[in-house]
Amino acid sequence: LAKIVEGELDKASYTKDNQRIYIHLNAGLSADTCIAVNKGVDGVGLYRTEVPFLLQRSFPSEEEQTSQYRAILATYPDQSVVMRTLDIGGDKPLPYLSIEEDNPFLGWRGIRFTLDHPEIFLIQVRAMLKASMGLDNMDILLPMISGIAELDEAKGLIERAYCEVAAYAEEQGVELQRPRLGIMIEVPSILYQLPALKGRVDFISVGSNDLTQYLLAVDRNNARVANIYDSLHPAVLNALKHIIDTGNRLEIPVSVCGELAGDPVGALLLVGMGYRSLSMNTRNVAKIKYILRHITLAEMQQLAQFALTAALADDVRSKTTDFVEERG
Ligand code: PEP
Ligand code: MG
């Protein structure tokens, strides 16, 4: 089996009945720029920029960030690379910046932190833009957006950084493309504001890890409540269905970059609901491609239909895992 799964590595992904599914990588460690698996993927769906920040002893300079971002953009010159702006706070505190809060997951994290520190945000976005000079494959993704005001404010800062770097690029005689812009769909409030995203963003990416945490009010890292942290909860699945249907209706490209996309059952359900773009950790790529290639879209749609109308997460889990196991 390992051999068959290995054989999937450099092939594009299709369902058994030839529906193309776009598979992207979740990245963040520099090792991701040189792995063999990247031959058969459609780009990077989530580059977690906080990882380089977490590995340093102090804030990385604009030059340090530029060279780190350049490395990943240059590895995939013909495919899109989605670079997420700093998502610290919550479970990802920086060792050189202490944030003491009673409820860190409800506190100063992601875009909330960077909008309160525009100097940090501007350095990062300038570094991203400089790294993308001469290339045309960068998308910028904003984490933890809970309302349109945050998005508009972040867009204003990105525009400022763009004007600064555009002037620099012109001096250097190098082209600077405008990055495509997207937001993470991971705070439940934004589910009710999707139409306001039309014309404001170029794409959206679903963070099923945080979406599950915030919809179910369950800390994603607390072992005591781990049994109720469940992305197969029918409420989470119905939220995911709402997002893809609304994204399709509004013609906003949607993908999923939470762990659910790299889980065999999760991937089948997502494709069955209508998702065509999944982003996952390197280690899941071959397995997910293998499973998708052996199941038809109609079968996935049937499973999704069952899951969306089920009352219990356990029923979703047993029915879908039985199905996957039957198929080997
Ligand atoms: C998510 O929340 O699903 C996600 C992909 O982001 P992170 O796990 O980095 O919070
Ligand atoms: Mg998240």
UniProtKB/TrEMBL annotation:
Main location: cytoplasm
Name of the protein in question: phosphoenolpyruvate--protein phosphotransferase
GO terms under biological process: phosphoenolpyruvate-dependent sugar phosphotransferase system
Family membership: Belongs to the PEP-utilizing enzyme family.
GO cellular component, one term: cytoplasm
GO MF annotation: an example: phosphoenolpyruvate-protein phosphotransferase activity
Compartments in which it is found: Cytoplasm
Lineage: Bacteria, Pseudomonadati, Pseudomonadota, Gammaproteobacteria, Vibrionales
The species this protein was found in: Photobacterium lipolyticum
Keywords for the protein's UniProt record, in alphabetical order: Cytoplasm, Kinase, Magnesium, Metal-binding, Phosphotransferase system, Pyruvate, Sugar transport, Transferase, Transport
Keyword Cytoplasm in annotation: yes
Origin: domain of life: Bacteria
